[in-house]
Amino acid sequence: MKLYYMTGACPLASQIVLEWIGTPYELQLVERTALRNPEFLALNPVGSVPVLVDGSLTLTQNPAIVEYLLEKHPETGLHGKTPEERAEVRRWLSFCNSDLHRTFSMIFGAASYSEDPAVQNILTQKSVDRVQFLFGVADKNLEGKQYQAGNRSIADPYLYTILRWAKAKQVDFSDKPNLSAFFDRMDADAGVQAALKKQGLA
């Protein structure tokens, strides 16, 4: 398997799952300037990472990649054992992808939507406010739990990755004790640390 990534970006979530399941994989760094190159667009016409290549299969999008990995390695138990447990995992995986990641992209990329600095500032602040609301939802869900779906699952690396972005962008979540404890728990995980080291982040 080969995982195409950008340092610190959302492919970190897929990479952590690869570490957790213990399957051999190769990392391929993609520079931002290469995302629009014909060679990369042949892998992903959208021009974004992650991309996972496994034999003849080329797969994009974190949720699809991590679900595929778990289909190949169900023995890891990272997707729940019952339909109800798997639905809960998918719920929080979707929350991270569709709500948190989408909103955070505005914090990173407000300049893509307007050349006016005042408009950019408004977009960024509105996005930070929305992220803080969503972090509150995640914090409440984690009350009495170590992980989003109860047990460790494919949803957790995605939330952890986004929390790393929050720290980098100084989006404070220290007032959310369950979320802070989740971050510290994930940060201490051996598989997480292995993934970070391979990206030069630890």
Proportion of residues in helical segments:
40-55%
User: How far apart lie the N and C ends?
Assistant: 23 Å
Strand content: 5-15%
- Strand line-up of the largest beta sheet: 2-1-3-4
- Would you identify the regions where 5 or more consecutive residues have pLDDT less than 50? none
Task: Provide a count of the helices.
Answer: 8
Tally of distinct domains: 2
Molecular structure report:
This protein is an alpha+beta fold. It folds into 2 domains: 2-76 and 193-198, Glutaredoxin, CATH 3.40.30; 83-189, Glutathione S-transferase Yfyf (Class Pi), Chain A, domain 2, CATH 1.20.1050. Helix content is 55%, strand content 8%. The chain has 8 helices and 4 strands; from the N terminus they run βαβαββαααααα. It has helices spanning 11-21, 38-41, 62-72, 83-109, 117-141, 156-168, 177-187, 190-198, and strands spanning 2-5, 26-29, 51-54, 57-60. The chain has a 4-stranded mixed beta sheet with strand order 2-1-3-4, covered by helices on one side. β1 (2-5), α1 and β2 (26-29) form a beta-alpha-beta unit. α1 packs across α6. The longest helix is centred in the middle third of the chain and has 27 residues, at 83-109. The mean pLDDT is 96.
Task: Give a quick summary of the entry.
By secondary structure, this protein is α+β, with helices and mostly antiparallel strands. The protein is built from eight helices and four strands, in the order βαβαββαααααα.
